[in-house]
TrEMBL record:
<feature type="transmembrane region" description="Helical">
    <location>
        <begin position="88"/>
        <end position="108"/>
    </location>
</feature>
<feature type="transmembrane region" description="Helical">
    <location>
        <begin position="32"/>
        <end position="55"/>
    </location>
</feature>
<keyword id="KW-0812">Transmembrane</keyword>
<keyword id="KW-1133">Transmembrane helix</keyword>
<feature type="transmembrane region" description="Helical">
    <location>
        <begin position="61"/>
        <end position="81"/>
    </location>
</feature>
<dbReference type="Pfam" id="PF03862">
    <property type="entry name" value="SpoVAC_SpoVAEB"/>
</dbReference>
<keyword id="KW-0472">Membrane</keyword>
<protein>
    <submittedName>
        <fullName>Stage V sporulation protein AC</fullName>
    </submittedName>
</protein>
<dbReference type="InterPro" id="IPR014203">
    <property type="entry name" value="Spore_V_AC"/>
</dbReference>
<dbReference type="InterPro" id="IPR005562">
    <property type="entry name" value="SpoVA"/>
</dbReference>
<feature type="transmembrane region" description="Helical">
    <location>
        <begin position="128"/>
        <end position="148"/>
    </location>
</feature>
Length: 150
């Protein structure tokens, strides 16, 4: 019986390997590269626009980040960012708009459970670990820098 099960598993694995779709790496890489670049160009246009109208560089950087997060959250809310992600893959995840998408998507998915147990509890399921470890490591490095002045 065990030999027969093993043969069935091997046949299944062979069928799986033969029928599994193979991604076109060149096409997917190109899509990710130009879409991620286009998102970054939009950010640069916002930054240059702010600089042109006399906003200081540090403030322009902050406003640009806020604007890109807002755009990413808005596009996620209306369902456009998912289509961009389907097309571009990782090219839509890398920029700051991908971070906004990772926060808004779970919130939208669980909104039917209410604002406290749905939106509030699930909002940071994807981005939460990134925030926790990022803030914790920056805090520890800040303490090390403060005490040892590297």
């Amino acid at each position: 019986m065990k030999v027969k099960e093993k043969n069935i598993k091997q046949k299944f694995q062979q069928l799986y390997k033969e029928s599994k779709p193979r991604p076109n790496l060149y096409k997917n890489s190109f899509r990710a590269f130009w879409t991620g670049g286009l998102i970054c160009i939009v950010g640069e246009i916002i930054y240059d626009f702010l600089i042109y109208f006399g906003v200081a560089k540090t403030e322009a950087s902050a406003f640009e980040s806020i604007a890109m997060i807002f755009i990413g959250a808005l596009l996620t809310g209306v369902g456009v960012y998912d289509k961009i992600g389907d097309y571009a893959g990782a090219g839509s995840v890398v920029p700051i708009t991908g971070f906004a998408n990772s926060i808004v998507s779970p919130a939208i998915e669980f909104k039917k459970e209410g604002f406290v147990f749905g939106v509030g509890a699930k909002m940071f399921t994807v981005a939460g670990p990134v925030l926790v470890y990022g803030i914790t490591s920056s805090f520890i490095l800040g303490l090390l820098y403060y005490f040892f002045r590297w």
